[in-house]
Amino acid sequence: MARIDAFLKLGLAQGCSDIHLAVGVPPMLRMNGELMPIKFRELTDTELETYLYEILTTKQQERLISGHDLDFSYVGDESDRFRVNVFRKATGMGAVFRYIPGDVPKLDDLKVPPVLKDFCDYHQGMVLVTGSTGTGKSTTLAAMINHLNETRNLNIISLEDPIEFVHPSKKSQIIQREVGTHVVSFADGVRSAMREDPDVILVGELRDAETISMAMTAAETGHLVLGTLHTTGAVKTLDRIIDALPGELREQTKGFLAMSLKAVVTQVLVKTPDGRGRRAILEILVNSRAISKLITTDQTHQIASQLQTGKDIGMQVMDQALLDAINTKEIDPDDAIRFANDKKRFQRFVTNSDMFPSIEFGDGSKV
Predict the structure, then answer these.
(1) What percent of the chain has pLDDT above 90?
(2) Looking at residue 252, what DSSP letter applies?
(3) pLDDT tens, 15-34?
(4) What is the CB-side half-sphere exposure of residue 314 using CA atoms within 13 A?
(5) Which of 63, 213, 263, 321 stands the most exposed, by the fewest C-beta atoms within 10 Å?
(6) Each residue of 88-103: pLDDT tens digit?
(7) Per-residue DSSP letter, 245
(8) Phi, psi of 30 (to 5 degrees)
(9) Residue 127 burial by CB count (10 A; 0-12/13-18/19+): exposed, middle or buried?
(10) 349 within 8 A of 355, measured Cβ to Cβ
(11) What global pTM score does this model have?
(12) Cα 177 from chain centre
């Protein structure tokens, strides 16, 4: 057993999502969004390097020595699976282990809006799941792949960096390929996938212009493409894609988004009222004729109003989704306000007055 497994076991016993190991501080656990140290000494560079080298291959060690970060999957002593990032910083080495549950999640268990199942019924086009790092994008996509796997006879090719949830083939055939192990890059993986008779291609991250361009081509040529972006809203997602590609392709990109982008899901994780868990809250854009027109006429700033009026086809804005979850006592209002755009709407729910800075008016009064 690798010595690092002891820290991983301790973290899982506490119910954490991530285990942080870094030189100069004790090991830390991410518990419901909060980072907490465990009772242990500060790790030294030599100590942590010894722990990590026990689980790294010779090739990975060489890559780390040459100045690169490492992203890989690790299976612990008790078959627990982790997504790992190893890096170097000013004081030495560091690593983060993200726990990947053994059971592939289901959409119903995640309590996401039913419209996400409808997105799985598309036969071509692009569906994006977006959000900041650590907001559960991979979990939502895994649940969508699982739904496809259980309900349709498809060839699903998943490109990940690294592979997280392991999907056994059910009704569908699922081919999982890891960037850096099976393919050189996401763009190369998409290029290869289009020659492998796919029905669905999952792109773990649309991280550069080439990958975005290849994913767009796949979505336009009869495939359903699922992907992620590190953006925090539907409008920002559209703008990011348009800005990522060369200026001479701007009109072509807008045309793609208007015709082939099917939906954008943006999510955050908010604490439950008891503080013992977190719940995914989603903003959802479903591409409609009105939204397509706004995209092609450079009026994406008006899309927010369309989200508010498109509830009948499954659209919702983040603030309203947060308020609905507060009213049904599914999330903690004090945590929810951190993700709200119009924080005044949440003031009557918040119990911690420190969440609101005092505002001083001209007459000297404060609120």
Answers:
(1) 89
(2) H
(3) 999 999 999 999 999 998 89
(4) 18
(5) 63
(6) 999 899 999 999 998 9
(7) S
(8) -90, 110
(9) buried
(10) no
(11) 0.88
(12) 18
